[in-house]
Amino acid sequence: MATTVQSGPGSLVPALGPERSVVWPHRTRRLLANGLEVVLVESHNIPKFTGQLYFRSGNAAAASEAPGLAGITAEVVRTGTARRTSRQIEEDLRRIGADLGTSAGADTSAISFAGLTDFAGELLKLVAELAQEAGFPADEFERERRQLLESVRIERTTPSFLAGERLRRVLFGAHPYSIVAPSEAQVAAYRREQLVDFYRARYRPSTALLVLVGDFSSAAMLGEIERIFGAWTAGEIAPPPNPPLPEVRGRHVHLVHLPEAVQAQVLVGNRAITRKHPDWMRLSLANSIYGGAFNSRLVMNIREQKGYTYSPRSGVHALRQHGYFSVHAAVRNEVVAATLTEMFYELDRMRALPVGEDELADARNYLSGVFSLGLATQEGLAGQLSGVYLDQLPEDYLEMYRERVRALSADDVLSAARAWFDSANAQIVVVGDRAQIAAQAALFGEVATYDAQGAPLA
Amino acid sequence: MTRLNIPVESTTLENGLRVVVSPDRTAPVVTVGVYYNIGFRLEPRGRSGFAHLFEHMMFQGSENAGKMMHIKLINSSGGVLNGSTHYDVTNYYESAPSNALDRLLWLEADRMRALKVDDENLRNQRDVVKEEVRVNVLNQPYGGFPWLDLPPVAFRNWPNAHNFYGDFADLDAATLADVQQFFRTYYAPSNAVLLMLGDVTAEEGMSLARRHFANIPAGPPRPQADVTEAPIDSERRAEVEEKFGTLPGIAVGYRAPERRTPDWYALAMLDQALHGGRAGRVYRQLVLEKQIAVDAAGGIHYPVGDVFDYNGPTLLVSRFLYKPEYSAEQALAAYDAVLDEVRQPRSDRGQQGIDRDELEQVKVKFRSDYISSLEGGHGAYIPRYGLMHYMACFTLFDGDPTLVNSILEGFLAVTPEQVRAAAQKYLDPKRRALVIRRPSKPGKGAA
Question: Per the confidence metrics, is the pTM higher than 0.90?
Fold first, then answer.
């Protein structure tokens, strides 16, 4: 390791000054009569605003009907309403200088938008129209389906996608979280009626969340929202399925063969926790020490000391029902075994030894500082707020975050690492040309090999 | 409405370092950037990729902060940091709670004063950079398409035409002596601008800049280089094998005008009409209407930059992936039909050129995008990255950071006639570069 430069008496490094407190912007929260939850925060740094309308139903809710159904539904939502054609929608957005995106994840479907304050009413009316009156034109559906077909083919030539897809399958088995994208055959089988049914059942205010951050007066904006979204009818929404999870025991290697790959994508992970779990903050801190920050142990080890890889990182991923921890690195083919050795060495060190006081203080500073940075733009603040309300975290979660980080101890980090860095049962995914990497991967467990379409290879 | 009112204070220190401060105290965070007026365009011959490799070396240790200390001291202050190499600038930036400002400036001054790196650091970062090139280009579908494919076709002068990420043989040939020479030549205070944005007053920012940077020796003036290009006089074509992706792709590049000329403003509006999202004519016609392409995008200086961050020859680029049941000639014919339209006026006789209403839409969107870019966090954790980036370019290329407040006026004054004239002058099928990516394992077409 490098010599340490300490700040303080006699050091050249300037000490940190006194911290300025955050002035929290005023937040307005309302539940409309139809169930729509509205959260408004004023932010007047630019004459714009940004918003997200979430429905708490995503691909997991539709997995038994058709994998990826929420995704294609979202794509087609923006292509026509009872009153506007696809071209009109796009040109109307341009006329008011707005951006709009529709998407779906495992747990949500979303319409995201941003626009100029001057045209806020027009943009909200269009969002409401897409949420309530999407027309699903047959030709637009066919066009989107074909585009999706081509994009799932290209996805399956992308190493990071293939690694993530395989890990989710291994960790979640028969649970819908195991599926991150449809297959070609599943896309080919979509019918327009499936989209319409999903939309009618799931794009409802009963479980929806509307978050707006930006340059507006909250009182006036709330009135506008009540006028535009108030007449929307509620509808009953069935909860998404939550089948049992597979037993994942012992380290296994899952190799996805990508012929002619000139690098290996390594991904290691295990199931962990959701954001509502009491260990969430502890695990976040442990992750930032292990591999979540540039300054983390793993990055310093396999990048700055050994030069195996460009951008290794670990992360804790929270879905609504479950979560997982993972660590990834794209490395040259010769060092697959060496990389796995270091990944597990650093995991086991986190589990075995308490972190020192200096490293702990640095990591607490990092987590709390980065949190503040994430709130400093309209888009960042909207994202953080959405997370709080979608996951139904305490109302003061953001306000209390930095204080809670500062209270974490070395014991907290050690206990979280022992509980959730499950190195003995971690699953190892390697994507690359098997002739170059299989022998190295086999040193870490029994190897199952797949092609890029997910079919087992002998 | 067109003139913005962002506070901008600037000065030049005696050693030539320009300093720009833009206070905004709504959140207790600050973004600091140091931009050097050198990018990969002017890296030494026989050393392709060197400007970027050098950027990595700037994190490997300086006079008083050894290897890992830049990263450690910023992360442990609650901040994040990075750097990036562009055509004509290289930047180093960090965002952190504002109580770390003094420390951030000390670190930036320390590495402007002297690099302290050794052969082991160079070997280590050469390995890291090779994995970066693999993960972003060599092991990715459509890697480098078209930012590495077009320049060697469109340009003849080595600074504009070489492999900016670097041939591995050239990366291997780089020495520690090259590193120190490059540092001495281009990393002087007189070739840089320091920017502070966010929770800092102008007075405090200027005083801290003087304290940390004023005693750094000025260094030699930046050497002049010839980056001019002879006009392109034909359509130049090249084919590149696509090893992973399943669809063929086409990228087209047209020489773009110099910044802040009348043509530059007009071409930017034309670009927005062509490539502004799903309403843009290229996407609308190729993807939504004719359905020959499945994706289309483009822009001036696309995809590595935009209309504001270049200072030398560059391209207006269109890029699309098309369905395998169409030939390249069919796809190109559909694309050329889009361009034929914008070279015409709009008329009752069926001509489909850009009229005043379309141009008005384009201008509103351009202004709205510009405002978002200024605020944007570059992935949400570098607040005001865009404001920093544009003010740095306006300082180094145009000598005036306050252009960030007034530059919109020129775009919003463009007329439909000027847009049409720009289309006729620049979007000439007989004067362009064209690259076709052909998959070695082509897709199957419709299922």
Answer: yes
